[in-house]
Amino acid sequence: MSVLVFAESNDNSINKGAHETVFYGKQIASKLGTDVTVVTYGNVDEGALSKLGSFGADKVLINRNISEIDDELLTGLVQKAAEQENSNVIVFGFDVVGKSVAPRLSARMKAGLVPGAVEVPEIEGNTFKVKKAVFSGKAFATYTINTEKKIISLLPNSLQPEQEDKTASVEDFAPDLKPGRLTIKDKITAGGDGIPLPEAELVVSAGRGLKGPENWEIVEDLAKELGAATACSRPVADIGWRPHHEHVGQTGIAIRPNLYIAAGISGAIQHLAGVNGSKTIVVINTDPEAPFFKAADYGINGDAFEVLPRLTEAVKKFKANN
Amino acid sequence: MNILVCISKAPDTTAKISFTENNTKFNEDKVQFIVNPYDEWYALVRGLELKEANGGTVTTISVGGPDLDPIIRKALAIGADKAVRVNAEATDAFFVAKQIAEFAKDKGFDLILAGKETINYNGSQVGAMVAELLDMPYVSIASKLEMEGSKATIHRDAPGGEEVVEAELPIVISSAKGMAEQRIPNMRGIMAARTKPLEVVEPSEGDHLTEVAHYELPPEKGEVKMIDPENMDELVELLHNEAKVI
């Protein structure tokens, strides 16, 4: 009856987002009075797998034969794990894998899915009520899952995982699976210093106010000092100053970091739709009427070319003193 | 190529979001509806480009009441050849996927395109569910799609970057930015759309696996705290002690 959590791995290591997903599964398992089994794949180091225990996993099933994201193979893997563990609740991250595998599994098992949950469900008997963000972050909806088997995918950065002193047991898991039909020909890494934007806790973003791609150094300096990912507004990605995968907003990606610093972005409603889940928003703009200030927690009415380097220095000083 | 494009309606991106009936229904009053941008700009337009290059037909499918017809006519005006509307309320992703799969199962579609998500429910579910119900491969969040004979080459989002994936048709693909450029319908397209076939079919049986119990708006944001641009030490201090994010 254990809660089953799919942990995403990448390049043979467990993704940071998976720690949160496992912790979320643990919260559900505690409510149900059961334990947590994790299923994952790839040639992941044994230590990284048993460490998932500290986030709440009791047991980890690892399939070392799968090395690439094939949604049919992974759907089969999770389905077989759910059968073996007799799991009625399956948890994914609402990430690129969770967006293809969770709904496929939902249709296969006739298990109701809530994609992009932001809170631990309310559980009453066999009914789960799960809150998720809708209308591109402008509202929330609480869904009732009607089916006995339930799938929830968790919107990244929804809860802060806590660790305990525990390790999980690790078992090889290699059931017979129907082969997938996708061939992965090439991987293109996003480049940069490698904090993937969707799972970054801190993000420094800039827009047309930066005036040209050659000026991004001050954005990158601050990001580096904070350990943050960099992002940009749509016009900046459209004119090619920054790569498309950095574009946050309605038609780019939606993020919800703990801290979003936006320099030289006016804050059009389409941009806000991609960042309105951020816990704290800092807006730097020369225009005191920029609509983004209305959505900000902290505002600086000033020139990004002066404010960003000053902020980088202040962060440096803070780090030296703490 | 025989292409099916899934079209859904969404409130205009600037629409004010509110709810009625004790917060159980979206308040459509004074809301302008549009074709869900991912469905229109990326899925539909890429479908049309592939048809223009390879010949074939582009059919759209939507699940909803007659209020959807103006949205569907817009898709026809942009260039789809014909449209189907399944006459049922679209309240659950699995139910919608079931309707699409039931319609598509014996029509021999080579390619089924959907948007990567709707901007109102942000679920990213229907495409994958249709693929499962039709036993087809699925590629999610595609930013590029090229065809060569019966082989599709697709760029898709992957953790930390993107991947180039190959698959044989038929296939279901969810579309994101990069797939195509938005097309504005011209007058001839708008005129032609009036007479293009829009077939209304009654729904097949399908379960509702989930339902919305209620909606809520996020808590009001407090007043913005303005900081002296000369004093970034103060901001760092607030981010550390007050917001507790660094």
Name the features.
heterodimer; A: about 325 residues; Rossmann fold; 5-stranded parallel beta sheet; 18 strands; B: about 250 residues; alpha/beta; 9-stranded mixed beta sheet; two-stranded antiparallel sheet; 6 helices; about 30% strand
Structural account:
The complex is a heterodimer of chains A (322) and B (246). Chain A has 322 residues and is an alpha/beta fold. Chain A folds into two domains: 3-172, 3-Layer(aba) Sandwich (Rossmann fold), CATH 3.40.50; 197-321, 3-Layer(aba) Sandwich (Rossmann fold). Chain A contains nine helices and 18 strands. Chain B has one domain (2-214): HUPs (Rossmann fold). Chain B is 27% helix and 31% strand. Chain B has six helices and 15 strands. Chain B has helices spanning 37-54, 69-78, 93-104, 126-133, 187-195, 232-241, and strands at residues 2-6, 9-11, 19-20, 25-26, 33-35, 57-63, 82-86, 111-115, 138-148, 151-158, 161-168, 171-175, 198-201, 210-216, 225-226. In chain B, the strands form three sheets. Chain B has a nine-stranded mixed beta sheet, with helices on both faces. Chain B has a two-stranded antiparallel sheet with strand order 2-5. In chain B, strands 3-4 form a two-stranded antiparallel ribbon. In chain B, a hairpin with a 4-residue loop joins strand 3 (19-20) and strand 4. The mean pLDDT of chain B is 96. Chains A and B meet through helix 3, helix 4, strand 7, strand 9 and strand 10 of A and helix 1, helix 3, helix 4, strand 9 and strand 10 of B.
